[in-house]
Amino acid sequence: MLKKAVSMILAVSLLIFAFSAAAEGGLFSKFMETEYEDERLERLDEVADVLSLSRTEGGVTVEVCQAFYEGDRVFIAYRADGRILEQDGLELEDGTYADIVAGGSLEQDGGVIGWKECVIPEEGVAESQTFCLVYRIPGSDEKQALKFTLKQHPADRYLMGSSAGEGYTAWTMLSLGAVDTKGRVLLTSPEQAASWLAWQEGLEGIGTDVIACWNLYRNGELVSYDLDGSSEVLSDGVGFFTMYPYIEDMEGLTLVPEYSEAGEKPEEAIVLETVPAAEE
Fold first, then answer.
1. Integer Cα distance of 104 and 79 in angstroms
2. Domain-wise residue ranges, the chain
């Protein structure tokens, strides 16, 4: 069955949530088994920095509890002991906006806990960066900004591979991070490009059976479906933005194409090989 993951772009959506003290465990994993469940949350609790930075205004204390900065993305877990009106994404210290791509929030004891994953614009990526959790207290127009500084966790391992299927060639590079594995698959095929937009719009009789996504396998066993699932039509093919959970064992990995009609075709798999960062 075709499974296309869609990024969760969630601002403030409140649910009643039974929550004990944050000291009993990391905040990220508190969102497992909820509508905000993400395979990476438990891993984030393992690698994120514990900050415990707080700001109190208007009788409301907001705290950034955990944070992690990797590549062009920053993850934070936070809580407030009262109601706040928060900006979806984060800001850099100079006001540059880092857009939210995943996250969620839950009500607890009159306050809220939440997490965000935000993408930093290319010009804002640095080895060390100051971020701001921006919010307002209800009844006030004054913007509050809780600042925190993080060092970037660089990716130092990559997976590369290529393959040739019927009427196409494919190439990929995946960056292995401490939280997840991200990258792109570039599919060169004018026929696929011509059919993709029609397929996305649900049109009949498009002719070519399009590749919808790429699933990660190890030695013939499914590791993960693509957690991102987004793509773009290029002039001579299709570009897939792919994401999979954190990978520790890199032996025997392949990306298997999944067609919209024919399903998976393991015989067209891209065999992935590890390369150091110097060969990127």
1. 12
2. 22-151, 157-279
- Residue 8, pLDDT > 50, answer no
**CATH number belonging to domain 22-151:** 2.60.40.1630
Reported as a pLDDT band with limits 50, 70 and 90, residue 194 is confident
* Closest of 239, 222, 223 to residue 172, by C-alpha: 239
Could you tell me how many residues make up the chain? Answer: 280
pTM: 0.80
HSE of 21, CA atoms in CB hemisphere, 13 A:
2
Q: Determine the pLDDT at residue 201.
A: 73
Specify the CATH class of 157-279 in words.
mainly beta
User: Is there a shared CATH topology between the 22-151 domain and the 157-279 domain?
Assistant: yes
Task: Enter the tokens of residue 102.
Answer: 């995943």
| pLDDT score of 203 | 62
Cα gap 260→82, rounded to integer Å? 47
> What is the spatial distance between Cα 69 and Cα 153, in angstroms, rounded to a whole number?
6
Q: What is the mean pLDDT of residues 89-112?
A: 93
The confidence band for 248, taking pLDDT boundaries of 50, 70 and 90, is confident
Exposure letters 194-211 (e unless 16+ CB within 10 A, then b): ebbeebeeeeeebebbbb
How many Å is the Cα radius of gyration of the chain? 21
Q: Is pLDDT at 14 greater than 60 in this prediction?
A: no
- What digits encode the pLDDT tens for the residues 174-184? 999 999 999 99
SS3 of residue 218 by DSSP: strand
**Both tokens of residue 224?**
């993960």
- DSSP per-residue letters across 59-108: TEEEEEEEEEEETTEEEEEEEESS--EE-SSEEETTS-EEEEEEEEEEEE
